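Same chain as my last thread, 172 residues:
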Amino acid sequence: MALEAQTRPVATAERHDQNQYLMFMLGRETFALPILCIREILEYAAPTEVPMMPEFVRGIVNLRGAVVPVIDLAQRFGRAPAATTKRTCIVIVETRVNDEPHVFGIVVDAVNEVLEVPPTDIEPPPTFGTTVRTDFILGMGKVNNRFVVILCVDVALSIDEMASVASALTLQ
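reply #2:
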C-alpha cells in the first residue's frame, strides 16, 4: 500500500527581516539601511589607500581574502569627510547591479541598533529639502516620533555612477 505524499501550503507571509533596518549616524543625522543588504559590521581600521580614486573612496580592506572597497558615506553625500572616532565603523553591504552582487564597506560615525519599521511607517522620499540626493533615498521611516532617512543602497552605492565619477576625476 503506497502512502500519498502530503503537501503543506507554502507560507506567503512577508519575511520578518524585510522590515528591519540598521540605524546609523552620519554627523548628527540618523540613517538606515535594510538589514538584508548588511553583511557585517567591522571596527574601524584604516583602509589601504588606492591612488587615483575619488575622494569618497577611502581605500580597500581585506575581508577574509576578498578585496572590499571602502566608501566614506559622508563624502559620497557631498559632505566633509567623516572624522574617525572610537565609535566609527565600517558596515559591509552588498548591492546588486544587473543581478550581480557587489560588496562595499561604508564608513559611518556610529552604528545604533536594528529596528523594525513597518511599511505603514515609511513615507515616500521628499522631493526637496534633504541633505542627500533624493534618488539615494528609499523612504523616510517614522521611528520614535522622528524621521530616519532610509537609503537605497543600490543607488547610493551604484558602481556605474562611482566609476563615472572616478573617470571624470582622472580627466581633470
